[in-house]
Amino acid sequence: MSAIAALLIACTGKTTDSSSNQPTAEPDAPADTGTTLPSQPETFTLVVSGDTNISLSFDAPTCTITDGVPNFYAYWRDSSGTHKFVLKAELRGIYAGEGLYTSADGAIVKLQEEAGGEARFFQTTTDLPNDPWVEIEGVVDDTVWGTGNASNLSGPNGSISLTPTTFPIWCSEENTN
What we know:
Helices cover 6% and strands 43% of the residues. It is mainly β and 177 residues long. It has one domain (43-171). The chain starts with a helix and ends in a 6-residue tail after the last strand.
């Protein structure tokens, strides 16, 4: 073995040169993160039962992701105006991108009726079963997606249960301010 070959083996720890049979990556090729952007969620129906009984359709997601403060707010409304309710998932002062946020972290889910309705308001509390959670499953470019979950909410208008308990979160460049 030549001195140069011995030196190369000592520096690399390789005893054979396998680089001649391996394809090389383009130096400017973007890294493949393996994350695929899902499709925007479709309209979904939320059935509310308990002290208020109503079926609500949601088709218009909007989000607020602030700069400088780690807040995250995801909203669902009905674009046709058949009801004035908004379904909200909030992460106040704890949003750090992908991950699972529970009520212990400060995750809150709310259902509230905006102007023009009866001003009904319900939110998750830690004393009700099935604490809420928000899972941010992916962040690609200007799109954030995941799921929110809450089964029981309460407020000045009593207590309610939600079916389904899980709802989509969708924040894109078009619907985020």
